[in-house]
Amino acid sequence: MEDKVNDRSQASRYQRLNITDFMTIGIFFVIITLVGTVVAFVGITPVTFVMVSSIQGLVLGIPTMLFYSKVKKPGMLLITAILSGTFSLLMALGPYHLIVGVLLALVAELILWSGQYKSARNSVIAYMLTSIAVTANYIPLFFATRSYILNSDMAGKYSEGMARGMTEIGERGFALYAVIVGATAVTSLLGGILGRKVFNKHFRRAGIV
Predict the structure, then answer these.
(1) Residue 43: pLDDT band by 50, 70, 90 thresholds?
(2) CA proximity to 88, closest of 56, 63, 64
(3) Cα–Cα nearest to 187, from 56, 40, 29
């Protein structure tokens, strides 16, 4: 009986995040955020603005899948999602990324856990879910278009043409937003597969097949 209690205690300790895990989260959060921010600069026109999440889904697959090869405990994706959502909040993009990101991260955590952190397929699916979270930043544009354009001072910061173009896109509403979410899901799947191929040796070394 005592042996069973000790085994459970050791297993519980093994599942707890340690300083190495937090360092891994921090390092990859910085890398992924920096690359994602650079990609976001393509959104200088109304059309490319709504393409940012899809491009990020493809490009960020490489560093994110390397991060996932190091995820062996529950909580790492959730913490990363909280950091990413908080970053969006600090960038005045609203709370939507944080809320949606946490919910999708919980599902992604469950998916990785169900594969015992050894399934490459589950890792790709988890990446797709966490990538979709960034599309939540578009919610004000598509569901509160005019107030979003006015409150963000789009005309003052950019131009009247940019404001008009963003208004026209935003007023397409749910249909276009759904297309963006779907496109981001597809590109992030491709990005996840690409990242898995690029870091195939890391995945095999980590026992992920």
Answers:
(1) confident
(2) 56
(3) 56
86: left (phi over 0), alpha (psi -120 to 50) or beta: alpha
- Angstrom distance (rounded) from CA 41 to CA 59: 13
For residues 2 and 50, what is the distance between their CA atoms, to the nearest angstrom?
Answer: 58
Confidence of residue 3 (pLDDT cuts 50, 70, 90): very low
Write phi, then psi, for 119 (nearest 5 degrees).
-105, 115
Spatial neighbors of 137 by CB under 8 A, at least 6 apart, are 53, 88, 93, 94, 96, 97
Question: Comparing C-alpha atoms, which of 8, 19, 37, 22 is closest to residue 76?
Answer: 22
| Per-residue pLDDT reduced to its tens digit, 136-192 | 999 999 999 999 998 888 888 888 888 999 999 999 999 999 999 999 999 999 999
CA atoms within 13 A on the CB side of 122: 18
* Distance of alpha carbon 159 from alpha carbon 153, whole angstroms: 9
